[in-house]
Amino acid sequence: MKLLIRNLTIADDDENLLDNAAYTFYQGNVYCINAPEKNKAAFFDSITYGKERVGGSIQLICGGKDCMTPAMVSRFNEDPVFPEFLTVREFLRYYIDMNRRSIQDIKTVDEYLAMVELTSVRGDRLVRDFTWDERVRLQYLCFLISKPPVLIVDGIKNVTNVEFLKKIKKYLDSIKEDGIVLVGCVDKSISMFLADEEVSIAEGKLQGGR
Length: 210
Description:
By secondary structure, the protein is α/β, with parallel strands linked by helices. The protein has one domain: 3-Layer(aba) Sandwich (Rossmann fold), CATH 3.40.50.300. It has 6 helices and 10 strands; from the N terminus they run βββαβββαααβαβαββ. The strands form 2 sheets. Strands 6-7-8-3-9-10 form a 6-stranded mixed β-sheet, sandwiched between helices. Strands 2-1-4-5 form a 4-stranded antiparallel β-sheet, with helices on one face. Helix 4 (132-146) packs parallel to helix 5. It is globular, with a radius of gyration of 18 Å. The model has no long low-confidence stretch (mean pLDDT 89).
């Protein structure tokens, strides 16, 4: 599977945020997108919603055919939002039911919680009472369950907790096995740690790094 960006042009007023840009993103990789916030947001919006595109194409090639639909792309920012008045177990049961057709091997709620080190959380605890760390882990768990073909992580905070960063990398490495992960990150050291490859937007072009 690969995400093809071809001749992509995105304009804002009189400014081209992307200008005839082209790149190929491959399954099995985490890409950190290093760009000014305005350019990065426009690029992610174009992939997610098809917005602001002046010209060019975005294709997701699966088995030799373009399989791109809105359902193929998942996205979240650094402050995930959940239904406030559900317990963690109620939320996970709801999420599993909503995505049952796309889940290959359905596990128990306890098995899923163990995947992101949330087994110590009381089952009757409301999601609204979760710490930021716990909400982030729960969000990654959703993606570990549903395995989206394209995952956009729109912003990662400047996390100083190395152990927590290692957990995020572990989750992303698992998700990328079945998909393509694009991460927006302004901290160079974090992007170097998380990514298999860095891609910058410079002078309207997508340019690969390491």
